Amino acid sequence: MRSKLQNIFGCDLRSLALFRMVLGLLLIADLAVRLPDIVSFYTDAGLLPRAAAMASALPAGRLSFYFLNGSTGYALVLFGISALAALALAAGLFTRAAAAVSWLMLMSLHNRNILVDNASSEFLRLLLFWSLFLPMGERFSVDRFLKPAPGGPQQRETSAATAALLVQVACVYFFTGLMKAEYEGWHTGASLVLGIADEQNSTPLAMMFLQHPALVAALGRGVLFLELAGPVLLFFPIKNLFFRAAALAGFLAMQAGIALTLNVGLFPAISMAAFLPFLPSEFWEALGGSSHAKEARRGPTWLARNFLAGICLVYVLVYNLQSVKALHFRVPKPLQIFGHAAGLTQEWGMFAQLRGNLNWFVAWGRLENGQEMDLWKNRPVSWEKPTLIAPTYRNEQWRKYLNTTTKYYPRQLRYFTADACRAWDAKHGEGEKLREAALYFLTRLRRPDGTYAPVKKLLLWKSPCSWDLGPRPGEMSEREKGGKLSALGEVKDGVRDGEWTFWYPDGGMKEHGYYQKGLQTGFWQSWYQDAAPQEERYYNEGKAQGRWNRWPPQGGRPASTCYDKGREVTCPG
């Protein structure tokens, strides 16, 4: 029995060493991906100044070294420390200290801007957390080269920490599978078809597969089966070597497929690395390694580490139960604060609920010369759907920022326009400076028959690059008593005629729409002071027309009222 438990929940130290090296390289790769956006994501000049970040982070127990200073130079110093610690971890130099510093720096990075991190960020952070409790430097390390282990190298470790690492990896897939299983589309395979069709992450190869929906549906059913059955097979007590190898082959094939068909950043690489500790001693023996399974030595420090690892493992298992809707269970708030502080909070609902809608963003700007530009593509703006949506995002962090902020933190979009002005003007000279910036959300809803509704264009945020902005020829501005801009729009023959934008005194979006000869026309939007949507309205020659939607101040579903030439009528459908 003891031998079987060691085989199931133990790790070969050579597998842990390989895991350590890859983990260090992934940390460096993660920093490299984030570095071009260091100003936008991690400084006071960017999308989330420290004051805004700390307002939500600190009450939840999230701490960060990045909160101490908001300059670009300081952020670069912290990136440098993170890179050095990751290199030391990969090399196995001062391994335990390097792992601790890497974990602290990664926690600080994630806590600095929670708007840009996703499942791959969580997974990397959790793998690094569990490495703190493991003998990661016992094999293939500078530490062991400089100080060989007395009595020869150790081969295996079986402990609460090794069990925790392996179970954590299994939790990622098992609880993802449980969340997917709540939706009928995953049982039929239709959800994977929708997941590719929405183009948010799809590569050209994925779109080619979409031409064969029956095959994609079959793969979708296979994904659900693997995510539910694979974690069980990893720990199956009978013929564990065989079933574990089969599960690992399935998971690795799935991650390779994800890497080829979905733009999800480093997630496939992180996921593949997570399976390295599962490599059995037989793998190394096949490569000519020793077959002597000498267990790691134990002492008071080992016992303390594993006692703490065991407590954290129980916490992770309980925390993941929140994702099972049938249990109606929530972790108490004090324990949630502990989870945030330790970086153990997690939710694995990747691609669980998919609708197939086509959604994309456009970063709009008007230059001083009046030209309207796409700020991301550096060319005249176009409202047409791009050939493929996924490449319109600079990287996975930008995709996460735009979708998360739009849905949950719309008030933070005020910093988007300021950052867009800063970034544009830093690259362009006089005559090409930016005057106004805005973020638009465009969507085509997928109908039940698979066709798409016409494009709907929603303004998310718009503001001048300077609140001292004066009107151009053909424009008129309005100001508060203190002189701050409150409205800006187009005029003709002394009356409003064209696009108009109105702001609250604090600079928040208030109202946006169009006039024709002084009368409201077309689509209008309004917002509450907290930036939540208030109304969507339509006008024709100043009279209410079509379906109006009004959201309650506390959020929720909008109430609809329909009009025809200013008179209220019954809404169709």
Please give a structural write-up:
- The protein has 573 residues and is an alpha+beta fold.
- 45% of the residues lie in helices and 18% in strands.
- Strands 8, 9, 10, 11, 12, 13, 14, 15, 16 and 17 form a ten-stranded antiparallel sheet that branches.
- The model has no long low-confidence stretch (mean pLDDT 93).
Integer-rounded radius of gyration: 27 Å
Pick out the low-confidence regions.
none
Main β sheet profile? 10 strands, antiparallel
Give the total of beta strands.
17
Could you report the average pLDDT, rounded to the nearest whole number?
93
Helix content: 40-55%
Helix tally equals: 20
| Coarse shape | elongated
Distance from N terminus to C terminus (CA atoms, Å) equals: 65 Å
Structural class: alpha+beta
Strand content: 15-25%
What's a quick, concise take on this entry?
By secondary structure, the chain is of the alpha+beta class. It contains 20 helices and 17 strands. The longest helix is centred in the first third of the chain and has 22 residues, at 13-34.
